[in-house]
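Bumping with the actual sequence this time:
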Amino acid sequence: MPHELWITGLFNRALAGPANALLNAIHFPAQDPRNPWSDWMVCEILVVLFVVIFFGMLRGHLSVDRPGKVQHTMELIYDFVNASAEEIVGHDGSKYVAFFGTIFLFILFMNLIGLIPGFDSPTMFPMVPLGMAVSTFIFYHSTGLRAHGGGYIKQFLGPMLLLAPVMLPIEIISHFARPLSLTVRLFANMFAGEEVYLTFVTLTKVLIPVIFIGLHLFVSFLQAYIFMLLAMVYVGGAVSHEH
């Protein structure tokens, strides 16, 4: 049996029944019914709970007259995401800030939880980046359909109808490669960063781990930003009338 986090062990002892019932209901039974919970599942659930509680508490303390430090930080993040969306997507970019901001913060928190002893970053397991990539794939195509209706298909046919038989398969392959690219980029970088960080924490005492904690923080922010940036590029291409 592979290494199991302590929190995953608690889930498997206390909640194995509900997990097996859910997996059987979707016709995807667990390989080991005694341990249906995986580390990435549990850590991702913890991040979701943290995000819900954090923003629920923040909403209750929002103030126009006396904003706190956390509110200032969140406002800076919002301004940054909004400015990036308007620059990349265009004048309609602000419509999609909620999605971009959610992608950025959710991936960031999943990246950072691995710095807490006893937890793993869910993004170092390929299933989680794949889920985020597929969600992005569905979202940008749905926004393209809403923006253009049936005319959205014209983006796949090339500049001239004569080129459509050639351009259509190329465009289809290109678009289906995007989820794979998003998945591999996030997974590979977080897996490598996590392994390097854990290796040096195990081998050294104080100074070197601090350096690699800083590196892990940088990679966590960078990969969350890159994922969000690519999502903006894809949405921008989907809703662009010029394209």
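The tokens above came from a reply further down the thread. The mean pLDDT is 90.
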